[in-house]
Write the structure tokens for this entry.
Amino acid sequence: MDELALLRDQVATERRHFAAVKEACRAALRAGGDREALADTCRAAIAYLAYGARRMHAQDHAHVLLLRPRIASGDAANHRVLDDLASTLERARAALLALESAPDPVAGVTTYLDFVDEVLGRRRHGLEALFQAHYSIDDWRATSFVDADSILEERERYAAFRA
């Protein structure tokens, strides 16, 4: 596998893990049961979700910063895509801060997962064509924030949630 494939695969893995934690939380919330056990699950989820969200936000913010000056000024459609992504990132940061400061972990996770589903899940930014037209391997290195340490940290955090 070449370097670009490795970088993109790691980013995809992180996003799959984020989705898996989200789905595990939804299942736990639906199941209910012991309130303290559910709160413990939600606390563990908050640790992973916050970590994963910060990484995704950083990656997407880096994409916006790198792509915006490369898009022709007359390319209104692609500038709208970047503007929408930037606006969504602002809302996502606010939702993440609310999650991290929620006094009740169950309510905090519930609210955050609703935001992820209703806002983030409905947005599929059309960046792939922009990546194809404007990105080099150096750009992927700069925007993925993937290195050996980040791979190990993500694996450890995901394993900690699963435990």
